[in-house]
Amino acid sequence: MKKNIIILAVLIAAAASFFASAHPDGLEKVAETLGFLDAGVERTSVMTDYSVPFVAHEAVSAALSGIIGIALCLGVFWLAAVIMKSVRRPG
Fold first, then answer.
1. What is the pTM of this model?
2. What is the spatial distance between Cα 23 and Cα 26, in angstroms, rounded to a whole number?
């Protein structure tokens, strides 16, 4: 059952990326409308704008970034569960 949920999450992340909008998100749109979009500090990231740098095809890059995001989230939650399970409760 757990593997099916993981597979489903990966498939949804990969498929949903093809429907992602190229338009700015809500916060970016408000910043643009109110005129303070350029006041923000630009930060670098490994997957800037939901893309993987070494993949040239834009749609595949977006799908791969979604899959990588799912894997990172699952890894963090799995590690937290392992740590919490290993901590003994008093009593």
1. 0.67
2. 9
